[in-house]
Structure formats: C-alpha cells, structure tokens
Amino acid sequence: MAKKKRKPSPRKVFEQAINEADHLQLKNGLTALKRGEGKGRILAKDSRQVLGSVDIDGDCLRAAPRANRWDYVIGYSRSGKVMAYFVEVHSANTRNVSEIKKKLDWLVQDFLRNENNAKLAALPREIHWVASGKVRIPKHTRQYRFLTTLRTKGLHGPSKQLTME
Asked: What's the pTM?
C-alpha cells in the first residue's frame, strides 16, 4: 500500500516561496518590520498564525536601488492555508497617492512577475497600504477618485491599521 503524501504545512509553503524568491530573507514573526514603522499598526488576530515576515524594501535595495519598492510581505495561516499580506507603511496624504501607484506597479508588474518569484506570486494575497500617520485624502479630490483605480488592482487602504485574520 502506497503512503499518502503529506501536504506541506503553511509555514513550509511560505518558507519555500521566500527561499526561492530573489533577494528575500525570511524573519520570524513580524521582526522584519522596522522599528517605529508598522509596529502597533500591523497586527495578527492570532499571533501563532504568523508564518514570518520579509523586508522587501531592504532586501531588494541593492538589486533595484532606484525602484519604488514595496515594504513588506507577511505570511499568515488562514484556515490552514497560506495568505501573503503585502504591506506598504506610508504617509497617506493626497501627494502620496502617486507614490503608492508607482510602488504598486513595481510590486505587481516587476517583482511578482519575476520568474524567480513565481511561488510567492502564486500564493493567495492581499495588498495593503497602512498609513504611517493620519489619512488625509479628502473624498472630493482627484487623488481619492484615483484610489478607485488602484483598488481594482487589488489595493486595500489606506487604513490606520491592518489586522491579519
């Protein structure tokens, strides 16, 4: 009788995706988050479900020094499956919307389309903009209306806080 192949754990799946990706280094828990950036703004409903985190911005600095790099990816086990949270912690004023667009374009069109990042790109994901301060994008501005376009590309936010669940 043949043995059943064991399905890899969410931690192992996320770890493999990061290890095969270009330039990325997996850190335990939320330790990839820079001090004062995201701490207290990025939370987990159950901290035991956090699979690890990566400082995309820092890890890709040498490879893409002029790129508008996204900040982080955080692995989270949701119902026994991996969810990749791509998180940008950034000011949320009207003038920042165009910067976020450039960063989102880099993430989706360059980083995730890189063949070496295929396993990471294949994971179910959410893309979040977490405000580093107050959100100041009035609803009557063209930047607010432009956020609708970015949301069709998968962007959530800007929000004051992200709780992974």
From this structure: 0.94
